[in-house]
Write a structure and sequence with these properties.
- By secondary structure, this protein is mainly alpha-helical.
- The protein is built from 4 helices and no strands.
- Helix 2 crosses helix 4 and helix 3 packs across helix 4.
- The protein starts with a helix and ends with a helix.
- 17% of the residues are buried.
Length: 113
């Protein structure tokens, strides 16, 4: 029984990897790095498709680098920015991602779908 679960897990992982590889191949290496960060961190609240609203976070495709850095690293908004969901400032800071802002910006600059 355990062997079946191991095989099933391997097949699922292989299928997921092959699907993401096809869409990732169209992205620059920097955007591919941003996609990995997004898939590992951001989809906890944002949709796996950044053009769509998530369970907690709004759609963020097309976000400026300035906005990404302000939200991810500082937990703030850039001066003059109007949040998509006023009164909902639940996003924590992810200071450890400060060196990944350019990669996230590269990934989010091109809407996926």
């Amino acid at each position: 029984m355990r062997a079946r679960w191991t095989i099933l897990a391997a097949l699922v992982a292989t299928g997921a990897a092959s699907c993401s590889d096809a869409s990732s191949s169209k992205l620059s290496p920097l955007a591919q790095q941003g996609q990995r960060v997004y898939q590992n961190v951001c989809i906890a609240c944002h949709n796996g498709d950044p053009t769509q609203d998530g369970a907690v976070g709004p759609a963020i495709a097309g976000s400026s680098r300035e906005l990404i850095e302000a939200r991810v690293v500082h937990g703030t908004y850039p001066p003059g920015y109007t949040p998509k969901r006023p009164g909902s400032n639940v996003m924590p800071r992810f200071e450890y991602l400060s060196d990944q802002i350019d990669a996230l910006a590269a990934y989010l600059a091109k809407p996926s779908g």
